[in-house]
Description:
Blueprint (H helix, E strand, L loop, with lengths): L13 E4 L5 E5 L6 H6 L6 E10 L2 E11 L4 E5 L6 H9 L6 E6 L2 E2 L10 E5 L10 H11 L4 H14 L15 H13 L5 E5 L7 H18 L2 E6 L2 H7 L2 E6 L2 E7 H6 L4 H6 L4 E10 L3 E6 L2 E6 L12 E6 L5 E3 L9 E11 L3 E8 L2 E8 L13 E5 L6 E2 L3
Parallel strand pairs: 5-10, 5-11, 8-9, 9-10
Antiparallel strand pairs: 1-2, 3-4, 3-6, 6-7, 11-12, 13-14, 13-16, 14-15, 16-22, 17-21, 18-19, 18-21, 19-20
Amino acid sequence: xxxxxxxxxxxxxxxxxxxxxxxxxxxxxxxxxxxxxxxxxxxxxxxxxxxxxxxxxxxxxxxxxxxxxxxxxxxxxxxxxxxxxxxxxxxxxxxxxxxxxxxxxxxxxxxxxxxxxxxxxxxxxxxxxxxxxxxxxxxxxxxxxxxxxxxxxxxxxxxxxxxxxxxxxxxxxxxxxxxxxxxxxxxxxxxxxxxxxxxxxxxxxxxxxxxxxxxxxxxxxxxxxxxxxxxxxxxxxxxxxxxxxxxxxxxxxxxxxxxxxxxxxxxxxxxxxxxxxxxxxxxxxxxxxxxxxxxxxxxxxxxxxxxxxxxxxxxxxxxxxxxxxxxxxxxxxxxxxxxxxxxxxxxxxxxxxxxxxxxxxxxxxxxxxxxxxxxxxxxxxxxxxxxxxxxxxxxxxxxxxx
Length: 402
């Protein structure tokens, strides 16, 4: 039983000591054997410190730092050009940073050639070998590593069963559908048993229904394997479905990082609030304070904001932006607005999207979006041009940093 551990990284050597002073292991490659077993999940899968990458006058990554835990599903979310794929490529060893450090399982990647890194990448284009069968595509990496034949056959067959493509083993990529090709690409990456699997918008080329199906399969696969997945996407819903945590990126920087519910329910900036889902934004001026809330004047009228919604840096400000998600609002067929946080609105658009109806309403000069579940068949009781009352709970209002 190890009761104390001392690990030293110097000249590519490390030691583990027992409390009694006995040496457990001494080697020339850190984190390749017992250190990894002893430390377990205490060592982050990926550590990025002050990463910078420039392309001419364009700064693709601007002092990016983050830590990704072992065994978690982590997403990099952001619009095109925000730097998420550049970050993924640097982790994979396909690009080199101008400054900063990347560590994989505690080891500086400057010490590891790209083809020796314990990572594999799945691309949107699949990158399958057209002249090889499915079985041979999956086995390709193991052959390059000169894995013994019997072990290779066992590992390939096991992975084909895991991703449910055993019956496709003898087909060529030209005989596969888009979803089948994606499963082959996943199997080829996973069969190498990487510590980290990097996925660069792997479902982006698939149709909506298949993409939804593979999202569930991909999440289940990650849970079964227990390895770290780093997933690049610009699809907000996809990131929410798949991730344990995510980082929202903008212009080469991380705008906000955290668990998915925390980032969605408590966005810190206008950009995060509007990029991760939809959000209504209002300029607010403080006109009063109580022990439990702050009273503000907004373009839609006077609103009460729960004190819990205030980040520490905005608690004493007199002007700020308040935000609220469309699904937090309740639309009532009424004209009474004399109670707290009830505002008179006129319905301008009614958009039926199956499980929900989206309403575009106007309160004074301000347009708002409201989303309500369709709990009944037929009309939900609101039509274009109709006047109604919108109720915005004080707890549903968020105060942003910017």
